[in-house]
Design a protein that fits this description.
Length: about 350
C-alpha cells in the first residue's frame, strides 16, 4: 500500500524540513483506511460508518515510523552521531530501523520483561544496542534524558519535537482517504503523543481550508495505566496492552488540550474490554492488531453504550500496531486445540465435525 515516496516528500510543505534536510525514508505512511463490514451490525448500530486506519502496515509495523522518518532525518541534518530512546517496544523497532538506514548508532532502553518479543526481536536485528533496565518506561525515559545530556546523544522519543510533526500526517491521510473528516476519531493513549499529533494535523487542514471541520478526538488509556484519567502519574502502571503501559505520559497536557478543543474526551478501558475488542476485530473484520490498538475499539463500544458517540456517526479507529508484534497474547487467548492429529482421513473428519 505504500507509495514509492515517503511522507516527508509527500507532505514536505507542511513539515519542518528544508532543501538541506537529508530524507531518511522506508516509504512509510499511505496506510489503508478500511471500512468495517460486520462490526456495526454486531454492535447493534447498523448505521454506524466505521473505518480502521491500519497503521500496523507501516514498514516496521507501527505508527511510530511516521515520526521517526522525520526525527532521524533531522538528526542526520544536525550531524548527530548516535540516537537514543526509551521504549515499550514499537519506538525501539522504528528507531533502530531508521537509524540503520541512516548509518547511525542507536541505543535503546527497555523495561525488562515488559516488551513483546516481536518488538524486541526487531530492535536487536536492526542492530541497535538494546539494554533492558529493572524499571518501567517512565524510569527508562528519565534515564534517556540524562544520558542524552551527558553523552551528546539525540533523543528520538516523542519528546523530540519532530516526532509529532511527522505523526500528524496520518490525519491528512484520513481526510484524503475518507473525502472529509470523520465525526469522531478514536485512538489509544499511552505516552499521549499520537492523539496530540492527529489533532495538530486535523487542525492544520481546517485552518488552511483543506477541510471544513475536524473530528472530536476520543482517546483511551488502559485502566491500569490511566494517569490522565486519574489526574496523577502512576508509579507502577500495569496492563496487557504493553505499548500503552505508561504511567506519566510525556504529551499529557497537549493530549488534554486536543480532547478539550475538539469537544472530545480521554477515558479508560479495562484489559478485559481491550482483549474482547482485540478478538472481535480479528474474527469480525479480519484485522490482526496488537492489543493496545484494540483500546480504540473498546473505547468506542463503551462510548456508544454511554451515548457519547451517536450510532449513525462516521468514526475512524486508529489501529496503531500490527498483531504480529505480540503473537503470545493471541496464542494465550486461543481455544484451538493445537495437538497433532494422525494423518488419517477418518480422524481428520472426526476432528472437523464431519
Amino acid at each position: 500500500m505504500h507509495s514509492e515516496i515517503g511522507l516527508i516528500e509527500r507532505y514536505r510543505q507542511f513539515l519542518p524540513v528544508s532543501d538541506d534536510t537529508p530524507v531518511i525514508s522506508l516509504s512509510e505512511g499511505n496506510t489503508p483506511l478500511v471500512p468495517a463490514t460486520s462490526l456495526p451490525r454486531k454492535l447493534g448500530k447498523p448505521q454506524l460508518q466505521l473505518y480502521f486506519k491500519l497503521e500496523g502496515l507501516n514498514p516496521t509495523g507501527s505508527f511510530k515510523d511516521r515520526g521517526m522518518t522525520l526525527a532521524i532525518s533531522k538528526a542526520v541534518e544536525s550531524r548527530a552521531s548516535a540516537v537514543i530512546c526509551a521504549s515499550t517496544g514499537n519506538t525501539s523497532a522504528s528507531a533502530a530501523a531508521f537509524a540503520a538506514k541512516a548509518g547511525l548508532t542507536c541505543y535503546v532502553l527497555l523495561p525488562a520483561g515488559k516488551v513483546a518479543l516481536g518488538k524486541l526481536a526487531q530492535a536487536i536485528l536492526y542492530g541497535a544496542t538494546v539494554i533492558q533496565i529493572d524499571g518501567n518506561f517512565d524510569q527508562a525515559l528519565d534515564m534517556v534524558r540524562s544520558l542524552a545530556a551527558e553523552c551528546n546523544l539525540t533523543i528520538v522519543n516523542s519528546i523530540n519535537p519532530y516526532r509529532l510533526e511527522g505523526q500528524k500526517t496520518a490525519a491528512f491521510e484520513v481526510i484524503e482517504q475518507l473525502g472529509r473528516p470523520p465525526d469522531y476519531l478514536c485512538i489509544p493513549v499511552g505516552n499521549a503523543g499520537n492523539i496530540s499529533a492527529y489533532w495538530r494535523g486535523f487542525r492544520l487542514w481546517r485552518e488552511i481550508g483543506k477541510a471544513k471541520s475536524a473530528p472530536r478526538m476520543f482517546g483511551f488509556e488502559a485502566a491500569g495505566s490511566a494517569a490522565i484519567v486519574r489526574g496523577e502519574p502512576i508509579a507502577n502502571p500495569e496492563t496487557v496492552a504493553t505499548a500503552i503501559r505508561i504511567g506519566n505520559p510525556a504529551s499529557w497536557k497537549e493530549a488534554e488540550q486536543a480532547a478539550r478543543d475538539s469537544g472530545g474526551l480521554i477515558d479508560s478501558v479495562t484489559d478485559e474490554e481491550i482483549l474482547e475488542a482485540y478478538a472481535m476485530l480479528a474474527r469480525s473484520e479480519g484485522i490482526f492488531c496488537e492489543p493496545s490498538s484494540a483500546a480504540s475499539l473498546a473505547g468506542l463500544i463503551k462510548q456508544l453504550k454511554a451515548g457519547s458517540i451517536q450510532g449513525d456517526a462516521t468514526v475512524t479507529l486508529v489501529l496503531t500496531g500490527n498483531g504480529l508484534k505480540d503473537p503470545d497474547t493471541a496464542l494465550k487467548l486461543s481455544e484451538t486445540d493445537m495437538r497433532a492429529v494422525p494423518a488419517d482421513l477418518k480422524k481428520l473428519k472426526e476432528v472437523m465435525g464431519f
